[in-house]
Design brief:
The chain has 3 helices and 7 strands; from the N terminus they run H-E-E-E-E-H-E-E-H-E. By secondary structure, it is of the alpha+beta class. Strands 2-1-5-6-7-4-3 form a 7-stranded antiparallel beta sheet. Strand 5 and strand 6 form a beta hairpin.
Length: 152
């Protein structure tokens, strides 16, 4: 589902937002620090700071539905991956470097658009939970005429 080019974009240290909804269709969301595309593009693991994950985890355990939006702040290229929950676990120590590297890339992107690191360095990313999703649909979310179009 997710080809290697799109996987490279998604794992490129960008803005990542995980969205869910509760039983009353009320939205919840959280900033994710990193993600990995796995199993030849059929699954992804999204890393969310444990301190910020409670509401989305409750929704995911209730209905399993999620949407992950990845955006590159410097040009607004954006992609949405819809998915269904497979599992939740505590992120392992050997995954911390992935989280730190992608988070650093995100902070660099913010610096390029004028948001200095001094204002973002206090954001918490660890310890993290690893949320594994099965990708079910992909959409272009880049502003412009193709926004909302399915990606195949």
């Amino acid at each position: 589902m997710i080809d290697s080019g799109l996987a490279a974009f998604l794992e490129g240290g960008l803005s990542i937002h995980l969205g869910t909804r509760d039983a009353h269709l009320q939205p919840n969301g959280v900033r994710a620090a990193a993600l990995r595309v796995e199993d030849a593009g059929t699954h992804l693991t999204v890393y969310v700071a444990k301190v910020a994950a409670a509401r989305v985890l409750s929704d995911l355990r209730s209905n399993g539905q999620a949407a992950v939006v990845v955006c590159r702040p410097t040009d607004d290229r954006s992609c949405q991956v819809k998915g269904h929950l497979v599992s939740v676990r505590t992120a392992r120590a050997d995954e911390r470097a992935i989280v730190a590297s992608q988070w650093d890339g995100f902070l660099e992107q913010l610096a390029l658009i004028g948001i200095p690191r001094a204002t973002t360095e206090g954001w918490t990313t660890w310890p993290a939970v690893a949320i594994r999703l099965r990708a079910t649909a992909l959409f272009d979310q880049t502003p412009g005429p193709g926004a909302g179009a399915p990606l195949s």
